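Memo to structure team: turn this sequence into structure tokens by end of day. - J.P.
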Amino acid sequence: MNPYIVGAVFPLIVLLLRHSNNNRKRRGLPADVAGEPGYAVRNHRSASLMSSAWEGVTTLAELFERACREHQHRLLLGTRVLISTDIETSHDGRTFEKLHLGEYQWLTYGKVFESVCSFASGLAVLGHLREERAAIFADTRERWFIALQGCFRRNVTVVTIYASLGQEALSHSLNETEVTTVICGRRELKSLVDTCGQLDSVKRVICMDDDIPSDALSAHGWVVTSFADVERLGRENPVDPDLPLSADVAVIMYTSGSTGLPKGVMMTHGNVLATVSSVMTIVPNLGPKDVYLAYLPMAHILELVAENLIASVGGCIGYGTPLTLTDTSNKIKKGKQGDATALMPTVMAAVPAILDRVRDGVFKKVNAKGGLSKKLFDLAYARRLQAIKGSWFGAWGLEKALWQFLVFRKVQAILGGRIRFILSGGAPLSGDTQRFINICLGAPIGQGYGLTETCAGGTFSDFDDTSVGRVGPPLPCSYIKLIDWSEGGYSTNDSPMPRGEIVIGGPNVTLGYFKNEEKTKESYKVDERGTRWFYTGDIGRIHKDGCLEIIDRKKDIVKLQHGEYVSLGKVEAALLVSPLVDNIMLHADPFHSYCVALVPVSHPALEEWASKQGIPYSEFSDLCRKEETVKGVHASLVKEAKKARLEKFEIPAKIKLLSDPWTPDSGLVTAALKIKRDVIRKTFQEELSELYAS
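Reply from structure team:
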């Protein structure tokens, strides 16, 4: 045979075989489980559920001590130096804080372990007893991690509280768990002082910042001390560790309260360790060369698992914030480096809202440049998309390298240029954003599915799975089972795939809700074999290769006047792709035949759109009220709805544009940026009534 023909055909044959094998690969296998009848799968890697990936390690305290012995001289925790703070004023009179941050300063594993031991001893010297609970109420930072590990060495249960939590939820969380010691930042200490009259059990406050406000020192009957002083006390008066057992409660994690007051989920050391162990086996070659950018709230289980995982394998953790993440982030002074550029991470965890913003920012820059730059980007994107979907054109050698050099390396530089893997969790990720990450950042993105009640464990996309819209097979620590939900019309006998409510079983399933036995009995069950199951309320279907897809949620389903069912979360996820939208809440009323929506708009995108349309306005809020603006945003939503093949009754017939964003500080979204549906509905009750009345 002509060698030139062989040379041309061979790569195509190899790719076709690889693509065929990828499609045939079984990622989840049928599982024999007890409990309520249903359709169950397990991970293909092992028949038994994983509790620990490290021999002899049964707690998070043991795991951390092991890592510190093994990697004593390696770098572990890094924090940027604050060089200066400037206040800038915009053209409309608003002021903004801009930061100039320096390089990362690092602590080794050995130094961190010394700090952890000192803090643990200092906590005991202050008078905190092991049977008492401590709360950490602060933004994610170096001392958050040290405090957590210090509490673990004294077998002290840690209550985690979001830094953005309101006063009512804060006092509820601290009083319900009878916390005696609160570890917080300077900003959170002010919230604590404002709430002091409602707190029943707090005796001690440890401030992570050295400059403690004078009013916090002078009242309330609390012993208020700095983090540094607690460490000094511990160094001068060392106390032996009091290490926990696997079944001891490590954390009471308060869910972010998307409905009503938050609930405390009780997690044992064994629960969290099972998820950490499982994810460690899923992400390939995770180890000492990896650098992790930590900026999500550590009071969220996704971040807590991620940081414990990176520390367990000898990696580095560099701290940042959502507002200083990139060079163009809101709080970064113009011309200065964001956290990602300074750190150059290799792995990240993210919630979809953050990834959507990265995608929108890139497309905004590309569209603004226009001309040849835009044409080149569009061509490169289309060719790489062909390659990912299975065409061999553009997948090989020179062309891929060319697009990387000409186009994608500039995009990758936004997050430091070295990202090799991103974990997305906390909410559904749109297919468009997932493709963007795959193509522009040149890195796989693993979409995970789990809940606080399952220590974030559930399912996780395989590294080599390029499909979108799915959340992968079960983690090695979990069974995934579907059970019939006849009211919603979902059955495990459905064709072509079994469908039903998702139930998660395994060692990662938590003990239940703190002081809420009724809710615990409603959501948790233990089968005759001793497996603990959590009933999620989410609806899924399992593909032939054993991967899970989330398709609905029982609580989000509303029946319209003429009998049609609308899944609010499903529709919102589809419409959020619109570049003009910053967030959205769909509202359906059983007494009406159509839906409406509240839409906080994207400021820069809408201003750019208005400029192109030649629409004059004085204030941004004025622009949002204009009829042509409402029509323009609605048209963009309809466009995305058609792309997602939504039914006509699922598309909002009327919308209300909101000029102010929904932030955790506003109380309208959680710290993980999930909408608080009930709170929003009450806050905007008048606007919703007007939409139905007009």
